[in-house]
Design a protein that fits this description.
Elements (H helix, E strand, L loop, with lengths): L1 H15 L18 H7 L4 H5 L2 H8 L7 H14 L9 E2 L4 H13 L8 H11 L9 E2 L7 H6 L8 E4 L10 H13 L5 H19 L5 H9 L12 E2 L5 E2 L3 E6 L2 E4 H17 L1
Parallel strand pairs: 1-2
Antiparallel strand pairs: 3-6, 4-5, 6-7
């Protein structure tokens, strides 16, 4: 599906820029528990633990007199006290909002921090006595461009990073904001991707019909090939040489439960840092 294609594309782009995809762990559609997958990713599965000196030493100190449930609890305590082996900088999840929201608590249960919230990182470091713990924010696709994901997720999603052609808060362009406000006023909800694209396509057809003669298929194709800087909600649109619409993408992030451009989030962070230095 699209997730597999996105994963392959992500891997090729990371490697082209000198990076490395450390783990690539597939899971079946509809999966509801991710304990085993996450444990394997951070060296907390049975095989990895048994080869970890810290875990083995902890288990060796369990009194031989303990049996049954008491011994099991001590072994689980040793597992929990074994720090996760986090050898990656972020986690790319090319899946739906529902799946990403379901995976994130399992990441937290493995004593990781799937966000860029400094306070959460500090609390987790203190609770796990792991001062070397680094955050591993979530990277995703356009599905994460969701107000529900930003405001209603069970775990903190600060710093989650994704791309999309739709961003109604772009102050340099009027159409996206006007469309979003009018749609919400009419239907009492935000538009989904198909509705946004349907509007853009309808707007483009009306534009071509008003400015060109489209009596034949050839004339329509010629008119489409000449589209330049067409003002669409997900635009501006330009028709590429391969017959595909080319449009700019926004690099978006989440800051204080609001969807902003990553540049804006970094600017806020820089201002705060400068203010602290001024004190």
């Amino acid at each position: 599906g699209s997730g597999w294609r996105a994963s392959a594309r992500f891997k090729s782009q990371v490697e082209a820029r000198g990076g490395t995809v450390v783990h690539s762990i597939p899971y079946p559609k509809g999966e509801t528990t991710f304990t085993g997958l996450i444990s394997k990713m951070v060296g907390r599965d049975g095989e990895a633990l048994n080869s970890n000196p810290l875990y083995r030493n902890c288990v060796a100190q369990i009194p031989k007199t303990l049996k049954g449930l008491r011994k099991k609890r001590q072994v689980e305590s040793c597992r929990d006290r074994t720090p996760p082996e986090v050898d990656f900088d972020a986690i790319f999840i090319p899946d739906s909002v529902a799946s990403v929201r379901q995976i994130m608590p399992f990441i937290e249960l493995s004593d990781m921090v799937p966000n860029l919230n400094d306070r959460v990182l500090w609390r987790t470091r203190k609770a796990t006595s792991n001062e070397k713990l680094t955050p591993t924010p979530i990277l995703g696709m356009r599905q994460l461009n969701s107000h529900y994901f930003a405001t209603r997720s069970r775990t903190d999603v600060e710093g989650s990073l994704f791309v999309d052609a739709y961003y109604p808060y772009d102050k340099s362009r009027d159409l996206p904001g006007v469309f979003a406000r009018q749609f919400r006023k009419t239907f009492s909800r935000a538009p989904d991707l198909l509705e946004i694209l349907a509007y853009d396509v309808g707007k483009m057809v009306a534009h071509l019909a008003a400015s060109s003669r489209l009596n034949t298929r050839r004339m329509a194709l010629d008119a489409l090939s000449q589209i330049r800087d067409f003002d669409a909600v997900t635009g501006p649109w330009n028709m590429g040489a391969n017959g595909q619409v080319e449009r700019p993408l926004y690099l978006l992030s989440i800051h204080k439960r609001r969807i902003v451009t990553e540049a804006a989030r970094q600017a806020v962070k820089a201002r705060k840092k400068k203010k602290r230095r001024g004190r």
